[in-house]
């Protein structure tokens, strides 16, 4: 049985980039998509609707774009130290993302995460359709993922740490024992237990003693 759980958002938290914007860059619609992303992260636009609008702009891209974008992803400084420290301390670390499995899967495996979940992009005949496939990973789904994984591992919610930066992370942060606003929007900082303004995920490590 694990002693504690760290749950991380992915885009702009576990990694430095917003994957949807990198995909949009290839499609030539980055500025349009970035504006929608910003509105959603500030809490001005429902995440599911913002996801629908942004993914629609990707229709027609070849699925080779996943490899192209994966090569442009850079893990946030300190993430390797954080994963190693969690495991050394007997904890678990997972990622819950409003982004996409196609990009997250190889990254999560490389980092050694214990589990992860994200949205899936619909592909037909090697081309993106502009839609997602399956259930949308929104704010409520992120919170549910934290609660369900903790229950499965026998970890009390008070022994969980949630790390995020946008409005879509607030529900899981409220469910956690400690919530960390990581280089976050003001709406997130206002509701977090801890604020980390330096882009170094190793700054989360000292919090283990408060939950383990």
How are the elements arranged and paired?
Blueprint: E1 5-8, H1 10-14, H2 19-27, H3 30-41, H4 47-56, H5 65-70, H6 79-88, E2 92-100, H7 101-111, E3 115-124, E4 127-133, H8 139-153, E5 160-164, H9 170-175, E6 178-182, H10 186-189, E7 194-196
Helix pairs in contact: 2-3, 3-4
Descriptive notes:
This protein is α/β, with parallel strands linked by helices. The chain has one domain: 3-Layer(aba) Sandwich (Rossmann fold), CATH 3.40.50. The chain is built from 10 helices and 7 strands. A 7-stranded mixed sheet has the order 4-3-2-1-5-6-7, with helices on both faces. Helix 2 (19-27) packs antiparallel against helix 3 (30-41) and helix 3 runs antiparallel to helix 4 (47-56). The longest helix has 15 residues, at 139-153. The model has no long low-confidence stretch (mean pLDDT 95).
Short description:
This protein is an alpha/beta fold and about 210 residues long.
User: Element order, helices and strands?
Assistant: EHHHHHHEHEEHEHEHE
- Rg (C-alpha, Å): 16 Å
Largest sheet: 7 strands, mixed
Distance between the termini: 12 Å
Look up the CATH topology.
Rossmann fold
| Count of structural domains | 1
């Amino acid at each position: 049985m694990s002693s504690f759980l760290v749950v991380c958002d992915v885009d702009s938290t576990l990694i430095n980039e917003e994957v949807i914007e990198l995909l949009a860059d290839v499609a030539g619609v980055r500025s349009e998509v970035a504006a929608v992303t910003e509105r959603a992260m500030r809490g001005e636009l429902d995440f599911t609707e913002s996801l629908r609008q942004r993914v629609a702009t990707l229709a027609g891209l070849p699925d080779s774009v996943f490899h192209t974008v994966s090569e442009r992803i850079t893990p946030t400084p300190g993430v390797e130290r954080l994963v190693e420290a969690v495991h050394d301390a007997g904890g678990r670390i997972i990622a819950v993302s409003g982004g996409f499995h196609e990009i997250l899967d190889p990254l999560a495996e490389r980092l050694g995460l214990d589990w992860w979940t994200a949205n899936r992009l619909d592909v037909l005949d090697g081309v993106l359709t502009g839609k997602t496939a399956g259930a949308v990973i929104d704010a409520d789904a992120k919170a549910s993922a934290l609660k369900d994984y903790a229950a499965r591992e026998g970890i009390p919610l008070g022994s969980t740490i949630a790390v995020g930066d946008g409005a879509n992370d607030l529900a899981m942060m409220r469910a956690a024992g400690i919530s960390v606003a990581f280089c976050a929007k003001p709406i997130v900082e206002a509701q977090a237990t801890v604020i980390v303004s330096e882009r170094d995920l190793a700054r989360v490590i000292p919090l283990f003693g408060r939950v383990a």
